[in-house]
Amino acid sequence: MTARTIVFGLDGACFDLIDEWLDSGRLDTLSGLLDRGVASGLRSCVPATTPPAWSSLTTGVNPGKHGVFGFYERHPDSYHVTPVSDETVRARRLWDYATANDRTSLVVNVPVTHPGREIDGALVPGYLATDTPDTYPPDVLERVGMDDYRVYAPSEAADVSEGRLLEEWRSLTDSRRDLTLALMDAYEWDLCFVEFQKTDGAVHKFDDRENVRRIFERVDDCMGDILDAAGGDPNVVVVSDHGIGQPKQWSVALNTWLAENGYAETTVGSERKSAWMDRAMGAEADGRRSVAGRLLAALGSVGVTKQRLERLLATAGLYDLATRLAPAGLGAGVDEEVIDYERSRAFYQGIGFSGVDVGVVINAETYYDDGIVDEGAYDDLRSELIDRLAALEGPDGTPAFTEVKPREDVYEGPYVADAPDIVLHQHDDYVIGSAKPRGKTFIPADAGRIDHTDTGLLVAAGPDIDSEWSPGSTPSILDVTPTLLHLHDIPLDERFDGAPLSLSAVDHDPRWTTYEGAIPGTAAEMTSAEEQALEDRLKGMGYLE
């Protein structure tokens, strides 16, 4: 009989990041698993960002089959995007297969699992849920004496010191362990899946690399506590959704390029101001507005937008100087240009976090109710954009994008039409910035701005793991769910894009079958205030400009 399995998800972890801490003995639990188990890189999906990657890992299918392509999803009847949720994931997940085969699962803090769907076991959602998550069973937190459990730290969206946030994130990490231990004690379980989000958040948020290490050390300690409490000899699998790269040099204002080249239209709106304009519009310590602020206010009174002024400064070669010298403070007074989606032929609608988070969307009549690009013009427009974006070079003469592809060359499945029409993969030195139009296309990236890489990690150890296994090529996150199901002799879904890895030492061969369609998730009812709170947290955690 297969042993129980514990899966640890370490968001954003990769060997390039943690090898030095393993070598110096800082991560005892992970080192012990590596000593007696096997390891490999783990290839992410496209895009290599948290929501689509964890959704792909836990379903075994590519985003075209489950429908999650980024932090937000778009809708044909509106240009307003909404945060993804469990309802967006239109495919069976690991714990659904376990439930259908009489196995009990404990799921803690896995992103995009809110509201908690009905399973055999317990599910407490993680990232992108509201702070007090909708669980399954609904009263499970009260049952195990953890009704004060929260998804986020108190200062998640605030501008606080690294030291304070470090302590809050350590406590938050401890709460994942405490909840997992309580659930393990309350249930007879077969599969336990707990995800630690702050291994990724620390890299994006902390300037001090030692604080990143401290988060990983706390996570490693919590993993050890969970393994000690589990007892026996469980199978242990450690996975991540993507890796972490090096600091970026340039931010690409994609909508600026689209507008300057006649593909996107702008209008005056109310989105957030450019950072340097915010500073320039602010007051000095004595309450008086700076000279720059008074000038901007005067220009605003005669209808000059921030982006128009930015373009003038860029033309004069003064944009970067203005960015560096603008005084501190916040204020208002100059109107904001925003993308006019209804009148644009193409636009970027990402959150300014990852260069592959969202690509270029074409305002097609075949998708949007109010689309303006007819079916006859679509192919020519998309081909033109692909050719021009592939040829786009940055200030240093390097191509901004290493891959520019039509979505059907990247995805396969019933939900491909919900993906961006053109999928972009940025060069290592570049990151796509926010969706706001800016004064010029290429802007120096914020100091320390780090993006994701395509390769995370996989570690496995236990009685049913072949300790001699070595991958012939880098496995995919799509292989994780088939591998875990095979460990437990659960029939595999013929819809899977992934396949079970040969690291299993079990004596049964994989069995394939046809499951009925996806189990519908419950709609996430998030108020506008909750949406704003989520956006503020994303910004505070370094995920959103």
Helix content: 25-40%
Could you give the order of strands across the largest sheet? 2-20-8-1-7-5-6
What is the CATH topology classification name of the largest domain? Alkaline Phosphatase, subunit A
- The number of distinct structural domains comes to 3
Total strands: 22
What is the CATH top level name of the largest domain? Alpha Beta
Which residue ranges are poorly predicted, with pLDDT under 50 across at least 5 consecutive positions?
Answer: 271-289, 321-333, 352-356
Approximate strand percentage: 15-25%
Biggest sheet features = 7 strands, mixed
CATH 4th-level superfamily of the largest domain: Alkaline Phosphatase, subunit A
The separation of the N and C termini measures: 50 Å
Output mean pLDDT.
87
SS class? alpha/beta
Q: Architecture of the largest domain, CATH level 2? A: 3-Layer(aba) Sandwich
Write down the Rg: 24 Å
